[in-house]
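step: validate -> pass
step: tokenize input -> pass
step: predict -> running
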Amino acid sequence: MPYEDRIQHRIDYSIWTSALSNFVISMGPPLRKKPFNPPSVIGTRRQLGHNSIYRLDGSMFAFSFMNDEVRESFTEYRLDLQSVADTLDIQSIPRNEQLAYWLNLHNVAMVEQIAKHWPVRQPREIEVDGVPLDHAKFIVVEGIALSPRDIREKIVYPNWRNPKVIYGFWRGEIGGPAMQREAFTGNNVSDQLDRAAREFANSRRGVEKRGDTLHVSQLFEEAAPFYFRDFEADLRKHLLDFAEEEVREMLGETATAKASLSEHDIADLAGGARDNPWFSSGRIGRGIATLLAQRAQKLDYVERKGLRQGQVIFSNIDLPGDPPDKNEVE
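step: predict -> pass
step: emit ->
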């Protein structure tokens, strides 16, 4: 639980940012349309890699390009982050710094364990010492053993009132919030969460309309006890903060909401499977090549349509009269 008295310490996550920039592939802005068809391949009808309708959403992690040394480095880094709490009172640093710490630690731990068990089709299949990954208490902070779910539901959700924090936790699944290509820091965490929330809320894996029912991700139902107790009213109000025109229309045209959307397949460039060498050429297998070709088609479509591909964010600019905690996530 964060303390009221603060000490102005900051934690450097440049190593994590370096890893993310090398292994995370952004799939571009969300499009509310069917994925582009893969290019035809002569000589086989076998489909390699992803077949999820959400495969061009969010981002993908390149687990297939990791060797043993890289995988071991993620364990070393997770242990290094844990040790920070032994020398620095996490509860006393600024709230945004605390939030960035818990988000990064959670995501590093998820990447570490998925990398150890790769290839795997769905992260929920992974067990650590016989316990499902999300419930396994392999993270130790100040002598307390924590699971990824503990970090979310016993530390962050009870102590941060803004529901946009849910978009900072990477689950390793296509159906969840996207992994960012830059580590969370005290300076950028608010803007990063806004960007992640906007991408998820406007994607098909976040919100869909079928008839007069608004279908939403099951992640919202998981977070409901903390942020959406009056589920429909609170969720609709939250989504309006990030919804673009098409989703705003869905919100106005639906009478009920149902948490029914999910996709548990791994958010991995290769789809959680090694390509058979018979179907591969070089280090990039046919499954990866197909997905990257579809991604290129999507980005070409976005450019031709003149759709927004990114945004410019000005941070760390102090204006006269600004409160010292103007960007603090409550």
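step: describe -> DSSP finds nine helices and nine strands in the chain.
step: cleanup -> pass
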